[in-house]
Design goal:
91 residues, mainly alpha, 4 helices
């Protein structure tokens, strides 16, 4: 069920208060540990923010060699968070 929560949360690249209230209701009804939900929620919000930052960086007019290190760092952070989420879901 945790995977479904992530999918719902991340389906449109935006996470608003209405979606949050719906997910909190689902979490309560399915007796999902609140700490697990909060961890997933924080991870997805962070991933969304990192993706927005990555897209912004790629639209700058700076040469790629100038932004390459930042792009690689953001990509690495996204991988670590995604792996952590996968590990949490497996629990």
């Amino acid at each position: 069920m945790s995977a479904a929560v992530i999918s719902m949360q991340n389906s449109d690249g935006n996470y608003d208060e209405t979606e949050r209230r719906i997910l909190k209701y689902v979490v309560r009804k399915l007796n999902i540990d609140k700490a697990v939900f909060l961890e997933l929620e924080n991870s997805i919000v962070t991933l969304l923010d990192l993706e927005k930052e990555l897209q912004w960086i790629k639209t700058t007019d700076r040469p790629y060699l100038t932004i390459e290190a930042m792009v690689n760092e953001i990509t690495d952070r996204k991988k670590v968070i995604s792996e952590s989420v996968k590990d949490l879901i497996k629990l």
